[in-house]
Specification:
Length: about 190
């Protein structure tokens, strides 16, 4: 499995063919949702650090002061290590989840406001659920383009299912007054 951002090198036809030929899954983080890219960075650190530690059966020297006892080889049961890592991650997740609010799932056809640098100023319709967690493809009414966005940047318009055709650009509508609701860390991809 490969976790990466949505850089153009990962969206190319050649790369998709490469993943198919080599038989691995490619998961991308949501565009403009930098905190989920931390998963990719953490995976690299985990693999590099844990491989080094497993190969040598001890911690390696680095700039951080450490005791002599930690530098001596000590073989650990890999099953026990994996279990402890899962417990630690679950404990961290439970701690973070206490202060966050789950956003409701969106369905195709739901009308949303898409957040940009100017706020929730673009109307869009949910086209489909993306394969990445909490990500959607939405189509805007202004330019007709399809965008890939994390749920955190989509605000559902109340009673939005089966609204009149958004493709008719000649229709004018009154601006919708929206309030910004803060959400917690769950939407960071943790």
């Amino acid at each position: 499995m490969l976790i990466s951002d949505t850089g153009p090198q990962y969206r190319s036809a050649e790369f998709r063919e490469f993943t198919r030929n080599w038989g691995f899954n490619h998961i991308t983080s949501s565009p403009y949702f930098h905190s989920s890219n931390g998963l990719a960075e953490k995976a690299v650190d985990t693999v590099l650090g844990s491989q080094e530690q497993r190969n040598l059966s001890r911690r390696t020297k680095n700039a951080i002061p450490t005791t002599e006892a930690l530098l001596k080889p000590k073989v650990l049961d890999p099953i026990l290590v994996q279990r402890r890592l899962r417990e630690l991650r679950q404990s961290q997740k439970n701690s973070v989840d206490k202060s966050c609010k789950r956003l409701p799932t969106l369905s195709p056809g739901d009308m949303v406001r898409m957040q940009t640098k100017k706020g929730y100023d673009r109307s869009a319709v949910v086209v489909k659920l993306a394969k990445e967690p909490r990500s959607y493809f939405v189509k805007t009414s202004e330019d007709g383009y399809e965008y890939h966005r994390n749920r955190r940047y989509l605000l559902k318009v109340p009673n939005s299912r089966n609204r009149p055709n958004m493709q008719n650009k000649s229709q004018t509508s009154k601006p919708i007054q929206l309030t910004d609701t803060r959400i917690g860390n769950t939407e960071r991809g943790i």
